[in-house]
Design brief:
The complex is a heterodimer.
Chain A lengths: L3 E4 L2 E5 L4 E7 L6 E7 L6 E7 L4 E4 L2 E6 L4 E6 L8 E9 L2 E5 L3 E6 L1
Parallel strand pairs in A: 2-11
Antiparallel strand pairs in A: 1-3, 3-8, 4-5, 4-9, 6-7, 7-8, 9-10, 9-11
Chain B lengths: L3 E4 L2 E4 L5 E7 L6 E7 L5 E8 L5 E2 L8 E7 L2 E6 L8 E8 L9 E3 L3 E5 L1
Parallel strand pairs in B: 2-11
Antiparallel strand pairs in B: 1-3, 3-8, 4-5, 4-9, 5-6, 7-8, 9-10, 9-11
The chains are: A mainly beta, B mainly beta.
Chain lengths: 111, 118
């Protein structure tokens, strides 16, 4: 089955700096890769996603890149703000079924 | 994005009793709903997948008689934790996705339910 790894497990950055979180997956059939932000005591919130027919997607300060050959995808957050502090999860899925999540990255943006 | 409402957000129950958690998709029809369990500082672990009108598919190691899932309509799925024990205390989260493949693959999450069994 699918296995998703995520690094780093914790990440601290200064406000205004960029943050990068990387994930790898094992199943080449996976074709949908969402990223979720989870704040303490709340459910995950979809922040961006990418499908296997696209190499990069951007939404304001957030971007995601996908390398299908290497089976890895990354989340990039630019101009970080304190409210970006949360736990971020990547996931891999085949057509939206059987989501497998990474272990999460705790991002702290220091003012 | 689409809205998924989960209720209650917190519940405390006595050991041996049952607790029902509701998950509703408010602005779309959810043909598939997922139930997850999350322990502190850990990732989401899929418990079961439910498709409207059919029996849920449980992940290995999840007791289907203990965690009853009903997905009777396109907007509502329920998870009932039966004969709850303290080790069932956890954060339970549902997610829902609409019909079709390809374009409609997003899954949206509820707010989660913190269950404490005393």
């Amino acid at each position: 089955g699918e296995n998703v790894e995520q690094h780093p497990s914790t990440l601290s950055v200064q406000e205004g700096d960029s943050a990068v979180i990387k994930c790898t997956y094992s199943d080449s059939a996976s074709n949908y890769f969402p990223w979720y932000k989870q704040e303490l005591g709340k459910g995950p919130q979809l922040i961006i996603d990418i499908r296997s027919n696209v190499g990069e997607k951007k939404d304001q300060r957030i971007a995601v890149t996908l390398n299908k050959t290497a089976k890895h995808f990354s989340l990039h957050i630019t101009e970080t703000q304190p409210e970006d502090s949360a736990v971020y999860f990547c996931a891999a899925s085949i057509y939206g079924q059987n989501f497998v999540f990474g272990p999460g990255t705790r991002l702290s943006v220091l003012p | 994005g689409a809205v998924v409402s989960q209720h209650p957000s917190r519940v405390i129950c006595k050991s041996g009793t049952s607790v029902k958690i509701e998950c509703r998709s408010l602005d779309f029809q959810a043909t598939t709903m997922f139930w997850y369990r999350q322990f502190p500082k850990q990732s989401l672990m899929l418990m079961a997948t439910s498709n409207e009108g059919s029996k849920a598919t449980y992940e290995q190691g999840v007791e289907k008689d203990k965690f009853l899932i009903n997905h009777a309509s396109l907007t509502l799925s329920t998870l009932t934790v039966t004969s709850a024990h303290p080790e069932d205390s956890s954060f339970y989260i549902c997610s829902a996705r609409g019909p079709g493949q390809g374009a409609n693959t997003e899954a949206f999450f509820g707010q989660g339910t913190r269950l404490t069994v005393v």
